[in-house]
């Protein structure tokens, strides 16, 4: 048995940041991970360039049963704090659309930065260490295949269920339930949607076609409403707008797409002496959608006549294309896990369990899920810092 101050399970973004902060306080920290290297999901993020934060990050950019929970951590460690850390290490970066910050070179730069920070904070990293169980006696005990660590604090940063080929497991959720903590039902988030059989027949031969849309999931107010690109795939829909809306989607709900945001597509057909037929409609729709998609749309939605009322109905359908997805592509293609350890079980300032002193949960394992575009990384850094300052 080895006695230590803090054991962090999971060497991803949240776990490494937590270990760094705890180490800076002079705590003896061991960081354990079952993988052969740290930060495997960091390395594949952002197309290999790591979208490490978003300058517009706000609590409103996150899903949770308690929308206020993330406020404390996000205020404690902001995008500006992360940018300062990146700049301190000389990492060059750039802004893409909508406030997303990416490394100029590679996600390896972020990994190197975190490893250096861990070394400076005297954090001991042990890879290939499989955590078997956690118990509480007088202290918390973490049992691995090789060692038993006795510690004052244990931080669970084991992530969610997304991308199982990267080693995702339900360990964090199982552990929470073992200690009597509620877990909000988990589901894939930021994930492509799968067409119904009918829609697949009508659209999937257009795989690769994309358009800017406004996507909304469900019918309740303030459910995801996103204006970005949509992509038709061999099985359904993807692209940023769809991924965003998917986090708000539940089976049985519709997804509504505005295919021509802020435009009156068929207005030319309403002009005096204008031509009103399928060819005229095709030309109008082609002005806002890729040609193949425009042709398919008009073919599938040709009105019985070309009266003003029929044109108005056709216009409305362009702005309210309602689909009933058959499902999602699942955790294999999901970027995040929606749901997780109930925030009501945790202290918002420290991420510590209210029921089990010394037990902390950070990052994706918690019921806080960000939008696409660097928000989930910011939550990982911020929640990790909050726990590291307390553990």
From TrEMBL:
Every RsdA/BaiN/AoA(So)-like Rossmann fold-like domain range: 5-389
Gene3D superfamilies attached to this UniProt entry: FAD/NAD(P)-binding domain (3.50.50.60), HI0933 insert domain-like (1.10.8.260), Translation factors (2.40.30.10)
Cofactor section: FAD
Keyword field: FAD, Flavoprotein
Keyword match Flavoprotein: yes
Any Pfam family hit: HI0933_like
Domain RsdA/BaiN/AoA(So)-like insert, chain residue ranges per copy: 187-336
Keyword Metal-binding: no
UniProt-listed InterPro entries: BaiN-like, BaiN-like_dom_sf, FAD/NAD-bd_sf, RsdA/BaiN/AoA(So)-like_dom, RsdA/BaiN/AoA(So)_Rossmann
NCBIfam families: aminoacetone oxidase family FAD-binding enzyme
Name of protein: NAD(P)/FAD-dependent oxidoreductase
